Amino acid sequence: MKNSFYCLLFAALILFSCKEDKQVRQNENLKDTQKKTVVFNTINSKWNFNTQPINPAAQGVLTIWSEWRILMGELAQKPKSTIGAFQQKAKILSKKAIDLNNNIPIAYNKPEVKSRISVLITKINALDLFINLQNIPANKVVGLIQEINIQIRSIQTQLGEIVRKNTIPREEGETDMIKMLDTTRAIPSNQNTKNFPKN
Description:
Radius of gyration: 30 Å
Number of strands: 0
């Protein structure tokens, strides 16, 4: 009799603990769903990239630099449905950003543009990293979106500056002086001694 009583008590404890575990899991799932909803709403409200050209140079580069045009087109398309759509978009942006190093127009293929492109690629890769974490830091993602916008503006401003500098007329003899200052045209030091007769 005692054994059956203990068995009944043990079975009741197991059923009670299973119900508690189920309730705890339901509460955790509800909290997780609410947290994901907050993260999605935060990212969805701030996912706006400023892809509009800010000067004629930035407008002109869209026609001659297909990689830039493609990236700007991807940034302009906002995902809508789920956080998974934002994660997928971030992966696409990361791939398109790396392509920016290909076929930079000759007029803009300068260190000041390349360095800004490298920073933009880094920021987009960071966005891809953070948005694909298990627990997405929404504030970090929003901050990166703002930083990407700053870098896009910086690149466009630099393109305009290059065009502005190229329109400044050169003074007489300036071209020759620039050529003389070019160290790549210097004669190597070992060739200097070959041309002179030995004593």
